[in-house]
Automatic annotation (TrEMBL), chain A:
This is Cytochrome oxidase subunit III. GO terms for biological process: aerobic electron transport chain. It is a multi-pass membrane protein. The chain crosses the membrane at residues 29-50, 78-98, 110-130, 259-290, 302-322. The keyword Transmembrane applies. It is found in: Cell membrane. The keyword Transmembrane helix applies. GO terms for molecular function: cytochrome-c oxidase activity.
Automatic annotation (TrEMBL), chain B:
It is found in: Cell membrane. The keyword Transmembrane applies. The keyword Cell membrane applies. Keywords: Cell membrane, Membrane, Transmembrane, Transmembrane helix. It comes from Arenibacter aquaticus. GO terms for cellular component: plasma membrane. This is Cytochrome C oxidase subunit IV. It comes from the Bacteria. It is a multi-pass membrane protein. The lineage of its organism: Bacteria, Pseudomonadati, Bacteroidota, Flavobacteriia, Flavobacteriales.
């Protein structure tokens, strides 16, 4: 029968080795991974948006949380994160240059650009570790109320934030860290804050310039209570909070620290694995693996992943630090 | 492998002589956008923080739009989507955009509802 005759073209279509999208198998799979990973990150960021809209009036203001730059004292909102962003974009650029050099089969250039990319990634991961350490250590300290709200302190004269150490009284008492080695085996208490609740309360009462700042945001600023309201509010205080962990943090809403750790942590893990993969490819380039193979497509594939990490950071930067 | 690169950006307004040149050009552009974002974030001009569009501050709209602009150039020039076949590009770009837009829509509406429940005092939270 004429209709069953197989033509040459059909053999090409179904015979394998076809690339209808013009991308090789490996590159397609990298794109599959990137799209699914992008959806994972979007899920996290959307969940962050959910919690933020839910507590829109009490969410911490990022500018007041991330104000530190290594080796400098003072209030520098966002400068360091901007620097980190620039480092990551820069390392993305050296990565494209490596891919570009790979297309032209220039081995030494690929090696140097890959090297610079790895350095950039390492600087970024290091910066993020520093950022975490600063965030966990905290700055001013705060007290938490019965209902889990965070109360911070402000100087009535200057309007500046006050740290607990600026006003807390010293009341001699026996406070001992409950460690694993004492008491019931393998039970331990939470680490004690630098000041007890009574010391902080006494400090607020004796210093007439200390005012409480609540979580509530009005017109872009946190509400500061009057002196009378401050003294009245003190009776709700239950805990001294310094720094941040997964349960409570001195910056405000508990979910803020949780999302910070989770999203920047997940992104930082991506950067870290990106650096590791870059290292592997870097050594393969040096050994001449791709020179012998005749093309540098592996560099291109790992480059796609690296740019994706940069792309995610652009969004994290906006939603965590800017908006 | 895409050996031939499309060398113009901004819809052909700017054409580069080589791929390397285009990469540096895109870097300069991305850096400028980031600088604008950071400056706006530090200054927070009152005219932008006190005017609203669709319930969100104009400033935040600017940040989000600039972010999408940056994302576009990273994907198009660094991940060289510009040089890929349009079928590949579309399936990569529109699938997540559709799903994420839906997710954001549904979650933010729900969150706003919960916020109103808290605000209108059906649940005591500030104590």
């Amino acid at each position: 029968m004429d209709s069953t005759v197989t033509t040459g073209t059909e053999e090409n279509v179904w015979g394998g080795g076809n690339q209808p999208l013009g991308a090789s198998y490996g590159k397609m799979m990298m794109w599959f991974f990137i799209v699914s990973d992008a959806l994972t990150f979007s899920g996290f960021l959307a969940a962050y948006g959910f919690s933020r809209f839910k507590f829109i009036e009490t969410w911490p203001i990022a500018d007041e949380v991330f104000t530190h730059v290594p080796f400098f004292h003072g209030n520098f909102p966002m400068y360091y994160v901007a620097f980190m962003t620039f480092v990551l974009i820069m390392s993305s650029v050296t990565m494209v240059l490596a891919v570009d050099a790979g297309h032209k089969l220039q081995k030494t250039k690929v090696i140097w650009y890959m090297f610079l990319t790895i350095i950039g990634g390492a600087i970024f991961v290091g910066s993020q570790a520093w950022e975490w350490a600063t965030f966990i250590k905290g700055d001013y300290g705060a007290i938490e109320t019965k209902g889990g709200r965070i109360l911070q302190f402000v100087d009535a004269n200057s309007g500046e934030r006050m740290a607990l150490r600026d006003f807390a009284a010293t009341i001699p008492s026996e406070r001992v860290d409950h460690e694993k080695k004492n008491g019931v085996w393998y039970y331990e208490g939470e680490a004690l804050p630098s000041y007890s609740l009574n010391e902080v309360l006494a400090g607020v009462k004796s210093n007439s310039n200390v005012l409480i700042r609540t979580e509530k945001v009005v017109e872009g600023h946190k509400t500061v209570l009057s002196r009378e309201e401050t003294l009245a509010k003190l009776k709700d205080a239950r805990l001294v909070v310094e720094g941040a962990n997964l349960v409570r943090n001195e910056y405000g809403s508990r979910l803020f620290a949780d999302f910070f750790f989770f999203i920047t942590g997940f992104h930082g893990f991506h950067v870290f694995s990106g650096v590791v993969i870059n290292c592997i490819i870097f050594f393969n380039v040096i050994l001449g693996t791709y020179e012998r193979r005749g093309h540098y497509e592996m560099v291109e594939k790992v480059g796609l992943y690296w740019h994706f990490v940069d792309l995610v950071w652009v969004f994290v930067f906006t939603f965590f630090y800017l908006v | 492998m895409a050996h031939d690169h499309k060398l113009e950006i901004f819809r052909g307004l700017l054409k580069f002589k080589s791929n390397t040149q285009k990469i540096w050009g895109v870097l300069i552009f991305l850096t400028l956008v980031t600088i604008v974002e950071v400056v706006l974030g530090i200054l927070k001009p009152v005219s932008l923080t006190h005017s609203y569009f669709l319930g969100m501050k104009i400033l935040n709209w600017i940040f989000i739009i600039l972010t999408l602009v940056k994302a576009y150039y990273i994907a198009w020039d660094f991940m060289h989507l510009r040089d890929e076949k349009s079928s590949l590009r579309r399936s990569i770009v529109w699938t997540p955009i559709f799903l994420v837009a839906y997710l954001i829509f549904i979650l933010l509406f729900e969150a706003d509802y919960i916020y109103q429940v808290y605000r209108d005092g059906f649940i005591k939270w500030n104590f």
